[in-house]
Amino acid sequence: MPILNRFEPFRMLPYLAKWLAIASAVAVLAGSASAFFLLSLDQATAWRERHPWIIWLLPLAGFAVGLIYHRFGKAVDAGNNLIIDEIHDPQRVIPLRMVPLVLGGTVVSHLFGASVGREGTAVQMGGALADQLTRLFRLDRVDRRVLLMAGIAAGFSSVFGTPLAGAVFGLEVLAIGRLRYDALFPCIAASLVADRVCLAWGVHHTPYAIGDLVPVSAGSVMAVVIAGVVFGLVGMLFAGATHRLGALMKRRIAYAPLRPLLGGTVIALAVWGLDAQPYIGLGLDGIVRSFQEPVPAYDFAGKLAFTVASLGSGFKGGEVTPLFYIGATLGNVLGPLLDMPFALMAGIGFVAVFAGAANTPIATTLMAMELFGAGIGPLAAVGCVTAYLFSGHAGIYRAQRVSAKHHRHATDVPQARV
Predict the structure, then answer these.
(1) Confidence grade of residue 188 (pLDDT, cut at 50, 70, 90)
(2) Which of 344, 348, 382 is nearest to 367 (CA)?
(3) Four-way CATH pick for 218-409: 1.10.3080.10, 3.40.920.10, 1.10.3880.10, 1.10.8.60
(4) What are the beta bridge partners of residue 175?
(5) Domain at 11-200, CATH homologous superfamily
(6) Which candidate, 142, 341, 146, places its Cα nearest to that of 224?
(7) Residue 13 — pLDDT band, cuts 50, 70, 90?
């Protein structure tokens, strides 16, 4: 072996030191922002639940947030897609105002009763805060891409308490069918530290219990494959319906603040007419219930409809926690039909619908293991990969580059640009 090659591993030491320092800085910013966001979200949710009449102010709240974004937030209105686009094709540093705009907009959405999530907010805050370090550390285009990926990982990890899933999500969400390993260490470092920072601020994540597992067998695998097909189709339905409604609202209503005004009115009337309080907000109580007892067969459809209406009409927030609700309640219903424990299938559905809608089967498999224990890993992997395969080549993130999900379509879809 040449002498230079023998010393090649030691040349990684400066790289590790550099990215450990940068990723830690990203993690402190993202983890602290997520902690403040989650604590604020808890307060907003508790207040709304004590004052259910506030749903009638949702249209005005939507108009106010829409107006603020129309006046001051056009440059950051693309949200997660803006960050993904900047990773693929770096142009300019993401404006710092993305952080207060998405934080305030999401908390207001939850306070007044929109059905939105929280991952989008955490990822946008993590990415925007990370990007402010670009000039400080004088990073070039290649390093800036890695920095933004670390910001995504840190935001995702800290908001859900899943550092391994967060690290892989930062790598996997960029392109369908491709992974970038050049950011692996920065993403892992940022994800792990951000999770600990968030916990250090006193944030507690919701625990879930799936009870007894079933052995991996031909019968259990086949049951999960069948369920995975359904999970993937529902994930595709969610993504497609959200995009189509958003596009329709933009075509029919030119003035952006009027879109959430109209959407908020429809949602408020539907909540009142259908007694649909369980389908607004994050829906964590509904998710927990799906692990404890059988739930109505229409619960997943109710959450899906209210979330599509909220996001499609312009309310701020994420998609992932509503997807957890949709998947958990759908899995709860499918379990007895497939002769499987409903709690186990709720756990698999929890991650698999998200896997299909976001095209991130590896991150969601890791998430299942972090949330429910390593024992669920094999069946969760089957469910997530099946859902991923059956959800089509689109998803909730329009900026994802498209490669191919399997070799039969490798020449039928546009290739990823990474």
Answers:
(1) very high
(2) 348
(3) 1.10.3080.10
(4) 401
(5) Clc chloride channel (1.10.3080.10)
(6) 341
(7) confident
